[in-house]
Write the structure tokens for this entry.
Amino acid sequence: MEKRQELYAGKAKSVFATDDADYVVLSFRDDTSAFDGEKVEQLSHKGEVNNKFNAFIMQTLADAGIETHFEKLLNDTESVVKRMNMIPVECVVRNVASGSLVRRLGVEDGMELNPPVFEFFLKNDALHDPMVNEYHIATFGWATDSQVQQMKQLTFKVNEVLKKLFADAGMVLVDYKLEFGVFHDRVILGDEFSPDGCRLWDAETRKKLDKDRFRQGLGGVIEAYEEVARRIGVPL
């Protein structure tokens, strides 16, 4: 498969066309950003860690019957994925209260949420990714009712698989975001799953092992990502 021109450059990843119209190359860069791109740094080795981490998670989900866009690792920092029409809505599941949920609702940080909280957010940095609901999605045509229901079902199935994966490795999956797209009329999981897009705490110490270390200036960001990877068995 031949890598061709760049199609899109996001905050931490770039997308390149290939000679096959159904597939693109997803390139993980060392760029790290927070607060809608207001804080940006280069963290050495991050692109490689996230690429391999994402490949492992996507394969784990595929083994559990969840279709994803991931096809194969191309090299240390790049993967081949299906070329999809992305749905501009993020699906967020919160198993433990933290971050914006605490700020919005005044609930206790670290409070276990049973059942988990599900939220939709519009993927729009300029608007700071506002929270939306199913009525907004239908009214503005971001997704069909069927697609919305599929995204919700798949997101909770991901939760079942990954909560256990991380719990077995002594970690708490606090919350995470997923993005979905349409490939040949099927709704499938896209984008990435890495410590950039979720919160992970050590189950005993509550040590943060995710991008909150970058957001809060705690240091040791890549070391934390690598620790998570080793615990769940990602080959780095």
